[in-house]
């Protein structure tokens, strides 16, 4: 009997030592798994946070650049409109002067009827004004194309 008590006692001791080792290993696995999940979650959140910051900075930069470009474009359009107005005014002046010269030429031709010097001077002035008018038309066309 004494032998059976000792063997029962040693079996109980073995049983009590084996389960705690298995429990310790299970606890280690659970802890390791939990730590792995926490580290993984932290990395995912960190990546999201960094990506979000980058996107926000990029968006701000792009918005600033777009605002600058819009302001520059507005200034250029305003400048082109001013140039177009001045060229248009100049063209109107040349046109009215050309009409005036044609009227003078018609009057001169009727009254003097033969002064070649006057006719040729007026004709030269008309040719010069015609050239200037054509140049102004080309400038207007270029300015209109540029403003589009």
From TrEMBL:
<keyword id="KW-0812">Transmembrane</keyword>
<keyword id="KW-0175">Coiled coil</keyword>
<feature type="region of interest" description="Disordered">
    <location>
        <begin position="1"/>
        <end position="20"/>
    </location>
</feature>
<feature type="transmembrane region" description="Helical">
    <location>
        <begin position="30"/>
        <end position="51"/>
    </location>
</feature>
<keyword id="KW-0472">Membrane</keyword>
<feature type="compositionally biased region" description="Low complexity">
    <location>
        <begin position="1"/>
        <end position="17"/>
    </location>
</feature>
<feature type="coiled-coil region">
    <location>
        <begin position="77"/>
        <end position="146"/>
    </location>
</feature>
<keyword id="KW-1133">Transmembrane helix</keyword>
<protein>
    <submittedName>
        <fullName>Uncharacterized protein</fullName>
    </submittedName>
</protein>
């Amino acid at each position: 009997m004494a032998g059976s008590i000792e063997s029962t006692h040693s079996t109980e001791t073995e049983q009590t030592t084996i389960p705690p080792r298995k429990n310790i290993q299970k606890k280690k696995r659970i802890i390791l798994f939990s730590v792995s999940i926490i580290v993984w979650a932290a990395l995912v959140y960190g990546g999201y946070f960094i990506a979000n910051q980058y996107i926000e900075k990029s968006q701000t930069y792009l918005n600033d650049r777009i605002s600058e470009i819009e302001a520059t474009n507005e200034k250029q359009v305003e400048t082109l409109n001013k140039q177009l107005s001045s060229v248009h005014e100049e063209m109107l002046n040349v046109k009215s002067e050309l009409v005036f010269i044609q009227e003078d030429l018609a009057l001169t031709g009727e009254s003097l009827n033969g002064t070649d010097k006057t006719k040729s001077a007026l004709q030269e002035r008309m040719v010069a004004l015609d050239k200037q008018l054509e140049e102004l038309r080309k400038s207007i066309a270029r300015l209109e194309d540029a403003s589009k």
